[in-house]
Amino acid sequence: MKKRLLVAFLLLLPITALKAGEHKALELSTIQVIPIQDSSNGREYELFVKLPEKYEKSDTKKHPVIYYTDALWAVEMLSATTEYALEDAILVGISWQKDIADTEKEWSSRYRDFKPAFASDNIDNGSNKGEAHKHLAFIRNDVIKYIESNYRANPDNRTYFGYSFGGLFGVYALISQPDTFQNYIIGSPSRLIGTYMDSRLESKPNKPLMDLPKQTNVFIAYGALEKELGATVERFVSELKNQKLANLSLEPAVIESANHTTVFPKLSVRSIYWLSDKLKH
Description:
Blueprint (H helix, E strand, L loop, with lengths): L1 H15 L14 E7 L6 E7 L12 E6 L2 H15 L4 E5 L14 H5 L18 H19 L2 E11 L1 H12 L6 E5 L4 H12 L12 E8 L3 H17 L4 E8 L7 H18 L1
Parallel strand pairs: 3-4, 3-5, 5-6, 6-7, 7-8
Antiparallel strand pairs: 1-2, 2-4
Helix pairs in contact: 2-8
C-alpha cells in the first residue's frame, strides 16, 4: 500500500510543482526550428521542419516536401492534416523575417516578400515595394538547397502551400519560375494577382502567361463569400485554361459558406487530400 502511495505521489510531482496561475509554453517536439539567412541580403529567417514519423526507419527513401509560407500561422493546421492524409511528407515552414525593427509587426515582412514588383512601386513611399523576386530567389537558392542537402528530400516532388498574400506569392512563383515546385496550393490569393497578370501579359504580349517544361499541378481556391476576390481568381483560372498548357493540371475550387477568415482550415484539409491523391499517381 505504501509503495502505491509513493508511486502516485511521484507521478503528481510535475503537476504540483506548478503553482496556480503559472503555465508552460507548449513545444512541438516533432518540429525542428532552424535559423537560416538569405545569402543575398543577410536577412534572418527560420525554418519549421517536421519529418515523417517513419523517417528514421530508412536511410535511402526520398520524401516529398511541402514548403509553406506564414509558418507560424499554418504550422499546426498543416502538421495535423498531413499526419492523417500525407504522413510520408516532410513539412518545411518558412517564417517571416526575424531581424526586423522593434516598431514593426512580426509579420510585416510578408507584404514585402510576397508581393511582386509593379511599375507603381516606383512612385511608392518605399514601405510597400514588392520584393517577391528576392524572396523566391532566397527559397530557391537557400531554403531548398539547405533542405535537399540535409534531408532525404525528393527534388522532383516539391509542393508550395500559400494562403492570402502567401497565395499571391504562389501565383508569382508559378508564373515566373514554375519549375521551383511540382505542385502549387494557392488559397484565397490577394486581388493583386489581377494586377500581376496584366503586367505580365503587357510586358510579353506575344508569349504565353508562363512556360511549363514539366508536369505542374495547381490547386487554387477561394471562399464562396469572397465575391470580389472570387471574380479575380476566376479570371486568372480562365486565363490559365485559355493558355492550353499541355503540362498543366488545374484544380479550381470554391469553398462553400466561407469568407477570407474561415476558408483557411477547410482549404488546408481539402488541398492536402488533393495532394495526397496526386502523389499516389
